[in-house]
Amino acid sequence: MARLFGTGHDPVTDAILGREYAKTASKADTLAAQVSKLPADLPDATQVVRIDAIEAAGATASRRTPVARFDLTFSVPKSVSVLWAPSGAATQRQIVRAHHAAVTATLDPIARDVPTRIGAHGAARVPVRGLVAAAFGHHDSRAGDPQRHTHVTIVNRVQAVTDDRWRTLDGQSLYAAAVARSDTYDLFVADNIARASGLTWEMRKRGRARNPPRELAAVPHHLSVEFLQRSAAITAAKDGAIAAFVADHGRRPTGPQAGRNRHCRSTPSGGPTGPR
Q1: pTM, whole model, 2 decimals?
Q2: Alpha-carbon distance 163 to 156, whole Å?
Q3: Which residues fall within 8 angstroms of residue 14, CB to CB, at 6 or more apart?
């Protein structure tokens, strides 16, 4: 794991797979290096002004950092987790198998279809020989509620079919299909659970401008809501942020403004994860 995901090396032979990940200095180290170049005989007041200017420029400067891996998160619907938590071992295994099978079925076309880029400025997309990934299963949310989900970490190294050279994968293609992959997983897990258990599903409303989720009919909505502490906290923080924006501007924020404004980004730590 350290070789492959940390440095882009073969996990067995330690050979470099393509180019090594570029090493970039931290922002703090970069600022310290710039400050150290200031003349030692500067008056204290001038030195303070120069340092403030360096820090201000560093705060707004864009930094390109190497991408070593991509994280995809596959999470079962909340009603499934609520059913899984108190169930016996046989039912729990049934649910977990349905989840794992759905994750695999969703990853298969990703491994087949996601390309790499070759040529000047990455002009051409070419197919690759699959993906290298590691999956990590979790059974609860950050708030401690039951939430079966799997993080799939994909290393940013793929082998091109055309010449067998190792390159970075085309991350734009990977994330462009995030919503479609999420819907694909949801359909697979619903079908797997229905086939294995005979349980039925229903679509449930969840507020204005939000797509209705598919949930197990046997699990009441009010019971699922009891285990949505994290979503409730995010919603409360968002409502408070919008109220603060309205107080400042006299109107509700538009969609783009909500994304840019510091008030409307006030959510609990570790915001929403990637595609389910």
Answers
A1: 0.69
A2: 18
A3: 3
